[in-house]
Write a structure and sequence with these properties.
15 helices; 439 residues; single chain; globular; alpha/beta; binds aspartic acid; 5-stranded antiparallel beta sheet
Amino acid sequence: MAVKVCKFGGTSMADGNVINGVKKIIESDPQRRFVVVSAPGKRYSGDTKVTDLLYKCYEELIHSGSCKTSFGAVRARFNSIVRELNIDFDISTLLDETEKLIEEKKSEDFTASRGEYLCARIVAEVLDAKFIDSTDTVFFKEDGSFDGEKSYKAISSALNGVPRAVFPGFYGQDTDGNVKTFSRGGSDISGAIIARAVNASVYENWTDVSGFLACDPRIVENPKRIKTISYKELRELSYMGANVLHSDSIFPVSKANIPIQIKNTFRPQDDGTAIVPITRYTLSGSTVTGVAGKKNFTVIFIEKSHMNAEVGFICKVLGILVEAGISVEHIPSGIDTMSLVIESSHLPADKLQTVLEEIKKAVAPDFIRVIEDIALIATVGHGMSSSVGTSARLFNAIASANINIKMIDQGSSELNIIVGVKNDDYEKCIRAIYREFFR
Ligand code: ASP
């Protein structure tokens, strides 16, 4: 029988009643055998996620040698979840042990991972399923990257003959045997890893929204829902800020062509969004699948005549950034010009000054200028490559909204066109693009 892996995010774990809803969802489909959970998220706006409470515990521990006060809030959350579930589960002992271990280990990653650990222990109890710890099944390499080969083997053997299992998301084990977490939101990656290891027929990612929207609903009212999207389109959109799924969760499943289905725990009857290997743009009925963006980039614009003839010019400039440990998002270039687009948070004023000085020394540009407060907006869709005039429509729409484009970058796959505009024009620009392609 085909197997489905289901990952439930923080809001799907927020309290006992919601977890009971999750139990119903899982038990309604015998293929839903392997479950990955996040730590309990917010119950209402203004509430604090358990993971954030745990990061506070770590801070308290580092400053005072104990995490007693902050751990009280974690304790209260898990006690009330177990009370609401009305299960016979000794959460007090488990919480005592956890607090003690946090104080002994003094590790930020270990502390942060305990939300997922405790939650998975409870959910395994609720489902009468086997709890499998991710420290025994998800491994990282010496350089900190995920060790697929070792992990997939460990997961398959841990699941051998197990009818139903629950894994905590977000963490694994490093080469020294310590707990190591993925970046925030990383339980999505854990779910994808389990799906890949068992060659699932689908990776169901249960959230609190009924799928991906074609753009941010805080900017455009009631945007269109995306029914089907390709891995690549999704990666572009989630990297640029569409916040439903961790952008790195695509890699494990896309290599095995396992589709991801985004589902809503609170409206399980909704179809959600299918993330699939390929999509024909005619499926979504639109040339453009979605629009997403991010604010606060800095552009370093460099001009030098005959730049294109100077062997190693770009290499020298990039070498300076490598040396400074700064990653570059985009490098649009012309015959005599190149721009480096960098997230402003990676470039504090002193670092920027040093980089500029180094560039001047290394390549003697005719002109160098820094443009700050730039927002990048990606218009994404496979359909763009096969329909004539898409960029003309895009630029016209932006021009008609009286917005000045500061930078253009079209990925070589023709899957997206990225424009840079002033931060202040960000929302207006997204609305203009949405109107052009979706209304
Ligand atoms: N609990 C972790 C976080 O808040 C991981 C996750 O939710 O996926 O980032």
